[in-house]
């Protein structure tokens, strides 16, 4: 399913919409170039999950944990060079069988390490500076309902 977000606020709102529908054990895998809106989308998801604190990109810490309606583990794999580093940061503990929700930015760096069941979100630039294209793919069980709700509420012709 693909859609266009016409502003940063709209990208955040789509993330919030997704976050409200996530259940424990779900994983979001985000990809896109620098500045594509991955962290902004994540902030919306976190808001939808009831996270009250400021959500920031874990570019240097590699993982941030947040409390909301469900625990949120937010990963940024951009600075990692070796898949072996994932074990050191606790990636598998949170991504393979999360109690809450795992959000993985730069998920395309180590595709073999991703859990088989996840919602893939590819963010890319649109026609102007503020516009973003979002492409969603459900991989495995449990995500089709989120895509159907997104399509019903946000999809543009």
Key terms for this structure?
globular, 157 residues, alpha/beta, seven-stranded mixed sheet
Please tell me about this protein's structure.
A hairpin with a 5-residue loop joins strand 3 (63-66) and strand 4 (72-76). The protein contains five helices and seven strands, in the order βαβαββααβββα. 29% of the residues lie in helices and 25% in strands. The chain has helices at 8-21, 38-48, 85-88, 91-95, 144-154; strands at 2-5, 27-31, 63-66, 72-76, 101-105, 118-125, 132-139. The longest helix is centred in the N-terminal third of the chain and has 14 residues, at 8-21. The mean pLDDT is 91. The protein is of the alpha/beta class. The termini are close together.
Q: Give the low-pLDDT segments.
A: none
As a percent range, the share of helical residues equals 25-40%
Q: Name the helix and strand elements from N-terminus to C-terminus, one letter apiece.
A: EHEHEEHHEEEH
Q: Outline the biggest β-sheet.
A: 7 strands, mixed
- Our Rg estimate from Cα atoms comes to 14 Å
Mind sketching the topology for me?
Elements lengths: L1 E4 L2 H14 L5 E5 L6 H11 L14 E4 L5 E5 L8 H4 L2 H5 L5 E5 L12 E8 L6 E8 L4 H11 L3
Parallel strand pairs: 2-5, 2-6, 4-5
Antiparallel strand pairs: 1-7, 3-4, 6-7
Short description:
The protein is α/β, with parallel strands linked by helices.
């Amino acid at each position: 399913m693909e859609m266009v977000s016409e502003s940063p606020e709209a990208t955040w709102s789509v993330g919030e919409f997704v976050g409200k529908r996530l259940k424990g054990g779900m994983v979001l895998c985000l990809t896109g170039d620098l500045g594509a809106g991955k962290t902004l989308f994540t902030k919306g998801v976190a808001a939808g999950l009831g996270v009250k604190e400021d959500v920031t990109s874990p570019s240097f810490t590699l993982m941030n944990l947040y409390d909301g309606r469900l625990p949120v583990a937010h990963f940024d794999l951009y600075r990692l060079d070796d898949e072996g580093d994932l074990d050191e940061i606790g990636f598998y503990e949170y991504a393979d069988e999360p109690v809450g929700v795992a959000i993985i930015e730069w998920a395309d760096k180590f595709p073999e390490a991703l859990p088989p069941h996840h919602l893939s979100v590819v963010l890319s630039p649109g026609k102007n500076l503020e516009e973003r294209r979002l492409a969603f793919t459900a991989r495995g069980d449990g995500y089709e309902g989120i895509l159907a709700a997104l399509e019903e509420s946000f999809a543009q012709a």
